[in-house]
What we know:
By secondary structure, the chain is of the alpha/beta class. The protein has helices at residues 11-22, 41-44, 58-64, 82-95, 118-130, 144-147, 150-156, 173-185, 204-215, 226-235, 240-254, 264-269, 276-288, and strands spanning 3-5, 30-34, 49-52, 70-73, 100-106, 134-139, 158-161, 193-196, 220-223. It has a domain at 3-140 and 172-196 and 261-273: Rossmann fold (3-Layer(aba) Sandwich), CATH 3.40.50. It contains 13 helices and nine strands. The strands form two sheets. A seven-stranded parallel beta sheet has the order 3-2-1-4-5-6-8, sandwiched between helices. A two-stranded parallel sheet has the order 7-9. The longest helix has 15 residues, at 240-254. It is globular and about 55 Å long.
Amino acid sequence: MSLIVTGATGQLGRLTVESLLEQGVPAGDIVATGRRLDQLKSLGDRGVQVRHADYADPASLRTAFQGAQRVLLVSGSEPGARVQQHRNVIEAARDAGASLVAYTSIVNAATTSMRLAEDHQATEALLRGSGVPFTFLRNSWYFENYTAYLSVFLEHGAVFGSAGEGRVSAATRADYAAAAAAVLTGDGHEGRAYELGGDEPFTLAELAAEITAQAGTQVAYTDLPQAEHARALAGTGMPQLVADILADADQGLRRGELHTASGDLAGLIGRPATRLSQAIATTLRGLRTP
C-alpha cells in the first residue's frame, strides 16, 4: 500500500509519518512529500520514500502521487491561496486513482461561522464533488497554540484573548497525527467526518489557572474586546490579516465552535487524548531543562 502524506516538512505531516512508522507500517510504503527535500532527508534515511510536491505546482503533485492509494491532505497555510492549492492536490489524487483522500479540516466545519473555517468548508465541498472517496479529519485547536507561548505567559503573568468563557477541545498535534495515521491504515472511514478534539474542554481562564498551579507563578486570563485583541496580536509582529483571523477564531471559541464532545479522537487513537495538565507539564519541563 502506498500512503502519501503531504506537508511532511511541517509539524502535523511529519508527526503523521512518525505515527505510521510507530504503527509498524513498512517505511517503503510511506511517501512523505514537501517542497524542501532536504528537510525530509532524515525520513529518507529511514527508508521512507521522499518526493518533492508543491501545492501550487500541479505537475509536481502528479509526479509525487504516482501509485498513490491513500492520501493525507494536510491543509495549507496561505490564506487566500489554500482553496486552489487544495484543488490541485485533490485533482492529482483523483488522477492517480487514489482510493481515499483524508483532509485535515476544522472542528464543526458544517456549522461554524469562523473566518478560519471558510477555506476548510470550500475544500470539503471540493472533495464531495470530486468523485474521490474522502474522510474529513475535523481538528479542533492544538495545545501547541498555547504552550508555544508559555514562557511569554509566565513573563507577563497573563494569557490574553477574547474568548470569554468559551470552552475549547484542544489536543496535541501528535494526537491528531495518530488519528490521521489510523484513518490511512484502517478501513471503513470513507464518507466519514470525524469531529476531533480533547476529552476535557477548558476555558482560557482554566488554562491560566493550570499554568499558575504547575509553574508556581501567577498567571491570569485577560479578556479583551475582539478589535483590541487583534491589535495586540498585530503588535507582536503578526501580519494584520492573520491577527484578525485569530481574533475572530476566539469569537468562535466564545460561541462554542471549537468544542466537541464526540469522543472521535479517543476512538480513533485507541486511548484518551492528552490532557491539558500533561501538555503544560511537558512544556514546563522543556523550559526548565538547561
